[in-house]
Design brief:
- The chain has about 575 residues and is mainly α.
- Among the domains are: about 40 residues; about 100 residues; about 140 residues, no CATH class.
- It is about 55% helix and about 5% strand.
- The chain contains 28 helices and 4 strands.
- The longest helix has 27 residues.
- About 35% of the residues are buried.
Length: about 575
């Protein structure tokens, strides 16, 4: 004191005194007073000794981790007193911020909405900016985002887990800016650069990134928004090491342009051939044997071959065939036809190859029709394979398929006619064509015909509209001399009304024999009939004549009341 030179004016000393008083308050547990009043008034108190209160990059990065940091970062982004460099750093800090309460909140503060310190809902920082300022800031930010998006996903752990992918916050923020309405990214070049970077990001490590649940926006959602460019690189990842071919195929089918779909179709065909190659089979045999040895599984060569076959089947029927169905394309269609027609392949796989052609055959291609028909009519093929071939025939125009199907009405196997007949009936819109159909059925019981055949024909015809109505159409055929037409007419009344019993009961005495079938023909005529003397119990009844069919099977089935 005595003689000591004092510095500063009384006013300065008063300010410093005020600062000291406030500093005392900062010792209180109120963090808001400490952070806001302490920091702000410290700057004010030092205003006479320093030029302004400079915010440094270090402050911006530190605020990523503090409680009030996001609000401070928003303030930097939205105030033009800060440099563009600092405002850009503040945006990046909001994007990088670690999850709070298990949720990353950077997008809310930056793009969507957030609650300020008073609990009021505010627009994200970028939305608060004037249009020109927003344009300038995002244009400066874009090259940094593009650079951040170049990172590859980290490798999985030995246990197969996905480590955190540091690029995901930047991917989510970039996508959020692009999809926001009204638009935030106003510069066409900037928008194109960001979309291209996201497309490249999606195709890099697709299989890991598509399964990463840490994303705020799903990868597939993003690619559908980005459009055809985002999936152009995906056909290249279709190979034997890919594990999510189905999702790749879905995206290409939904989003890709025709050239991309064609490349995917070609890649799937190459993969299908790979799974049938000796090279692949030998490699898988080695892998299976090594696995058996590690797990102390004893298996001879035949059993190992069976294990390899199961792997091959799974790859084809659960990955390649379904993906071909999704993508389509002439290469895939030709491959599926060839596989289904090759009797060397297991019937179940051939059936699934034909199933994968659903909706993919060219309805205007005579070649596609001929290949389908060749499989359907070949009685050496398994019934399961032929059934699906008939289903595919149903996709072609009826004027093309009906003549071919009628050509199958005199086959060696009665089931061929049956399936062909049902396929023909599916093309009928009214009862107009039914008489021609009935005229093509077997004339006598010398031609094998199972009981299910006429019953199923009648059931389908019953659903047709037009004049005459099915009941009126069938009534004259009850007395027809043509066996197939008469049995189909009787079949119309199967499980019909009690009131109609009088129409069919006169035929209980019909002595015409039913077709004789060998066991392997699977066309026996039988039903559960009431036991003699105990009508409440039933027993299997082998039928010999048309009359027995009417008496023991047809009439008892007609128990519906008229009011029903």
């Amino acid at each position: 004191m005595g003689g000591t030179k004092r510095r500063g004016s009384p006013k300065s000393r008063a300010n410093l005194g005020t600062m000291s008083t406030i500093t005392t308050f900062t010792g209180l547990p109120n963090s808001r007073i400490r952070d806001s009043l302490g920091a702000a008034l410290t700057c004010a108190a030092l205003a006479f000794h320093v030029v302004g209160c400079r915010v440094a990059d270090e402050d911006v990065k530190r605020w990523e981790t503090t409680q009030r940091g996001p609000h401070k970062l928003v303030a930097i982004v939205t105030h033009d007193k800060y440099s563009w460099q600092l405002r850009t750093e503040a945006v990046l800090s909001l994007i990088r911020m670690a999850p709070r309460g298990g949720v990353r909140q950077g997008i809310s503060f930056l793009v969507d909405k957030y609650k300020d310190e008073d609990g009021a809902t505010r627009e994200g920082a970028l939305n608060q900016l004037p249009e020109e300022a927003r344009r300038q800031l995002i244009d400066l930010l874009a090259p940094v985002l593009v650079k951040e998006l170049e990172g590859v996903p980290p490798s999985r752990t030995p246990e197969g887990r996905l480590p955190p992918d540091p690029t995901i916050p930047f991917k989510d923020a970039t996508f959020a800016m692009l999809v926001h309405e009204p638009p935030l990214v106003l510069n066409d070049k900037t928008r194109a650069d960001l979309k291209a970077a996201l497309s490249k990001w999606a195709a890099t490590g697709f299989e890991d990134r598509v399964e990463n649940g840490a994303q705020q926006f799903g990868l597939e959602q993003m690619m559908r928004f980005l459009g055809p460019e985002s999936v152009k690189a995906l056909p290249a990842i279709i190979n034997e090491n890919a594990s999510r071919i189905d999702r790749v195929a879905n995206l290409i089918n939904d989003v890709g342009d025709e050239p991309t779909k064609l490349k995917a179709s070609e890649a799937l065909v190459a993969l299908g051939h790979k799974y049938g190659s000796k090279e692949w089979l030998d490699a898988q045999t080695k892998v299976v044997k090594e696995s058996n040895a590690r797990n102390n599984i004893k298996a001879d060569d035949t059993q190992v071959a069976g294990q390899v076959d199961k792997i091959q089947e799974r790859n084809l029927t659960e990955a390649v065939f379904p993906s071909m169905k999704r993508v389509g394309g002439r290469p895939a269609i030709d491959f599926l036809f060839a596989y289904a027609a090759d009797g060397k392949h297991p019937a179940e796989r051939r059936k699934l190859a034909l199933a994968a052609l659903e909706g993919r055959v060219d309805k205007n291609s005579p070649n596609d029709l001929e290949r389908t028909f060749a499989i359907a009519k070949n009685e050496d093929n398994a019934d399961a394979v032929r059934d699906v071939a008939f289903q595919r025939m149903g996709e072609f125009p009826k004027e093309q398929i009906v003549p071919k199907l009628y050509a199958l009405f005199e086959p060696k196997k009665w089931k061929t006619r049956w399936v062909a007949g049902e396929t023909v009936l599916k093309t009928f819109a009214t009862t107009k064509q039914v008489p021609d159909f009935l005229a093509r059925l077997p004339k006598t019981p010398a031609t094998k015909m199972g009981m299910t055949e006429p019953l199923s024909y009648a059931a389908k015809i019953r659903q047709l509209e037009g004049d005459p109505k099915p009941r009126e159409l069938f009534t004259p055929y009850l007395a027809s001399k043509d066996f197939g037409a008469r049995l189909t007419a009787l079949g119309y009344f199967w499980e019909g009304k009690k009131a109609d019993r009088g129409l069919v009961q006169p035929f209980e005495n019909d002595k015409e024999l039913l077709p004789k079938c060998e066991k392997e023909d699977d066309c026996s005529w039988s039903c559960d009939a009431s036991k003699p003397g105990n009508p409440k119990e039933t027993e299997p009844k082998e039928l010999k004549t048309v009359g027995e069919f009417v008496k023991y099977c047809l009439v008892p089935s007609m128990d519906k009341d008229d009011k029903k």
